């Protein structure tokens, strides 16, 4: 599907280009690069006596970084080998980098041993604190909680400290920018803001109640505390979040309260107690929120057996799976597939695809574009033999149709039609007033043409050139791509409809602003790839 090239200024252009740029990299690569840049910058500051002055040296910090990452990678590989699981190396690198920022740099061999032990515990938690192949809580947080509990009861004295030293004045700006990139890429900006603002706000209240000035309390909460880093790089991890946005925001509130409790408990308790585990407030917030998210979600990975594949149109393919147990999903949500394979490229081993099968179907199907050249993941997925087993690691997304009887406008560009296909084929969907505007590059090669025609929903097909024929209830608009003006001309009662837009980031960005001025409501879903 062609996308607009005339949108060169304004917020829509900026967000569209940002989505497109970030979408070229898998989420793991984005996080790895950002954490790596933060680590390099931190080492530079330490080496020039602008960070952790008197606490460590650049050599000790660098050695701690190497030990944390190496221990995480090697222990994960060692645990995965006897289990017959292909280790996800980049995930382990991220775990090691996170631990580097959570733990104060080791000053001696004993400290390095404790750092390595924490990394090993974090790796082990991915397999031990897991259900059906899906870890329940953030591994780095779990590793710290496990090792610090052991250290408290059996190893009194020095050895390890969870300083969260990433939270300091010298790092606050780069950390905030990096966290914003992660939250934008994962579409979790609201979640990050809820946690950071609520958690930090509660800390401010507690500090002021204990006698701090408002200025000092604000500095402590937003600069010297890790709320921003935690929100961007740890709480936002998709595998430890529930599937729906409202649930995610609820989990963010829970995490914020646990995170801030040691500070703001003084508002409710005249003589607040101080427990040893209060030093683990950030890690416990992540562990508890992850446990609640697991309870709210799919509760583990789902084993899938590939039952068939077919070319739908052009470079669009559909894969069908028989799940070992029912997959709980709402029409419009996505399924994240894991396909470990050799020669993994920068796109990684997990990708999210919209579910195209209707709710309640015995099999679950997804559709994907396979352009030339394509990623190693998609090549491996298409080469998978029928009958092979794969794992769905997550189900989620909020791109679901609203309840009620408000008329709907669905706007799809190319592969963006997939969530609508599930919605329109699910029971009761066609009982309401729905119009689909569908942009494709070739009017005679339309993905899911027959399936859409069977729903009886009116379709406005946008494509360059005239089609040979059209199903009943369809009409054609000769244009290279969908625009807001085109939609307004094609749908006379646009102002009465709630608009749902799905497609490439540039198309979504171009339509978002234009439709908000015309439609009753606008929801979007950009296919940037996860």
UniProtKB/TrEMBL annotation:
A Pfam cross-reference name = NAD_binding_1
UniProt keywords, alphabetically: Membrane, Transmembrane, Transmembrane helix
Q: Which InterPro entries match?
A: FAD-bd_FR_type, FNR_nucleotide-bd, MRET, OxRdtase_FAD/NAD-bd, Riboflavin_synthase-like_b-brl
Return the SUPFAM superfamilies for the record: Ferredoxin reductase-like, C-terminal NADP-linked domain, Riboflavin synthase domain-like
- Signal peptide bounds: none
Asked whether the UniProt record includes Transmembrane among its keywords, one would answer yes
Tell me one GO molecular function of this protein. oxidoreductase activity
Name this protein carries in UniProt: FAD-binding FR-type domain-containing protein
Q: Which cofactor does it need?
A: FAD
Keyword Oxidoreductase: yes or no?
no
Instruction: Please name the taxonomic classification of the source.
Output: Bacteria, Bacillati, Actinomycetota, Actinomycetes, Propionibacteriales
Annotated FAD-binding FR-type domain residues: 299-402
| Entry's transmembrane regions | 27-46, 58-81, 93-124, 136-154, 166-184, 191-211, 217-236, 248-269, 275-296
State the CDD domains in the record: FNR_like (cd00322)
């Amino acid at each position: 599907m062609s996308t607009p090239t005339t949108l060169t200024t304004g917020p829509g252009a900026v967000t569209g280009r940002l989505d497109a740029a970030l979408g070229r990299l898998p989420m793991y690569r984005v996080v790895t690069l950002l954490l790596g840049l933060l680590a390099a910058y931190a080492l530079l500051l330490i080496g020039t006596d602008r960070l952790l002055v008197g606490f460590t040296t650049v050599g000790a910090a660098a050695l701690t970084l190497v030990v944390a990452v190496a221990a995480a990678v090697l222990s994960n590989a060692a645990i995965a080998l006897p289990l017959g699981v292909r280790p996800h190396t980049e995930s382990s690198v991220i775990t090691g980098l996170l631990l580097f920022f959570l733990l104060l740099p080791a000053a001696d061999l004993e400290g390095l041993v404790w750092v390595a032990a924490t990394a090993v515990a974090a790796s082990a938690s991915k397999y031990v604190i897991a259900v059906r192949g899906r870890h329940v809580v953030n591994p780095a947080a779990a590793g710290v909680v496990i090792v610090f509990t052991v250290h408290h009861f059996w190893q009194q004295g020095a050895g390890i400290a969870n300083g969260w030293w990433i939270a300091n004045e010298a790092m606050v700006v780069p950390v905030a920018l990096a966290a914003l990139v992660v939250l934008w890429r994962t579409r979790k900006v609201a979640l990050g803001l809820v946690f950071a603002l609520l958690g930090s706000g509660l800390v401010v209240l507690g500090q002021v109640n204990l006698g701090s000035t408002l200025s000092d309390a604000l500095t402590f909460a937003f600069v010297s505390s890790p709320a921003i880093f935690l929100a961007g790089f740890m709480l936002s991890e998709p595998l430890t979040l529930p599937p729906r946005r409202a649930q995610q925001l609820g989990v963010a509130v829970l995490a914020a309260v646990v995170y801030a409790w040691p500070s703001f408990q003084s508002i409710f308790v005249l003589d607040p107690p101080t427990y040893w585990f209060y030093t683990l407030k950030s890690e416990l917030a992540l562990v508890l929120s992850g446990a609640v998210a697991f309870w709210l979600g799919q509760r583990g990975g789902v084993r899938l057996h590939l039952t068939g594949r077919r070319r739908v149109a052009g470079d669009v393919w559909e894969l069908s799976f028989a799940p070992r147990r029912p997959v709980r999903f709402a029409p419009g949500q996505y399924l994240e597939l894991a396909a470990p394979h050799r020669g993994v490229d920068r796109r990684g081993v997990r990708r999210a695809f919209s579910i195209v099968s209707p709710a309640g179907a015995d099999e679950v199907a997804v559709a994907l574009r396979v352009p030339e050249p394509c990623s190693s993941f998609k090549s491996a997925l298409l080469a998978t033999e029928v009958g092979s087993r794969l794992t769905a690691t997550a189900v989620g997304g909020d791109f679901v149709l609203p309840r009620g009887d408000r008329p709907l406008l669905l706007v799809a560009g190319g592969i963006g039609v997939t969530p609508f296909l599930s919605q329109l084929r699910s029971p009761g969907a066609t009982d309401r007033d729905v119009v689909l505007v569908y942009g494709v590059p070739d009017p005679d090669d339309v993905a899911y043409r027959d399936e859409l025609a069977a729903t009886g929903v009116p379709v406005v097909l946008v494509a360059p050139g005239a089609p040979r024929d059209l199903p009943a209830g369809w009409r054609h608009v000769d244009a290279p791509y969908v625009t807001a003006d085109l939609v307004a001309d094609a749908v006379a009662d646009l102002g009465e409809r709630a608009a749902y837009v799905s497609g490439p980031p540039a198309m979504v960005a171009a339509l978002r602003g234009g439709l908000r001025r015309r439609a009753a409501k606008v929801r979007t879903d950009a296919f940037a790839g996860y």
